[in-house]
Amino acid sequence: MLEKELILIVILGLLLLFYFVIRFGAGKKEAISKSKEVSRYLIGVRALISILALVGVILWFFME
């Protein structure tokens, strides 16, 4: 079984990887700053990943 700290690192690493894949798929920085729709989408993605990270940390505290 993986150690408790390693599980937290893996969860946060996967969430970070998920964010970078979506961010790079959204386009270049100039295109994102010009498009309000894409910038709102990325704000929603950041909020979702933050919520998932918070839930992951909370569940991590309850592991045996």
What can you see in these coordinates?
The chain has 64 residues and is mostly helical. The protein has one domain. The protein is built from 3 helices and no strands. Helix 1 runs antiparallel to helix 3. The relative contact order is 0.16.
In short:
By secondary structure, this protein is mostly helical.
Number of strands: 0
Q: In whole angstroms, how far apart are the ends?
A: 12 Å
- What proportion of the residues is helical, as a percent range? over 70%
**CA-atom Rg in angstroms:** 15 Å
Number of helices, counting only DSSP H or I runs of 4 residues or more: 3
* Silhouette: elongated
Write down the domain tally: 1
- Tell me the strand percentage band: under 5%
State the order of secondary-structure elements, H for helix, E for strand.
Answer: HHH
Outline the fold blueprint.
Elements lengths: L3 H23 L2 H6 L1 H26 L3
What descriptive keywords fit this protein?
0% strand; 3 helices; mainly alpha; 86% helix; 64 residues
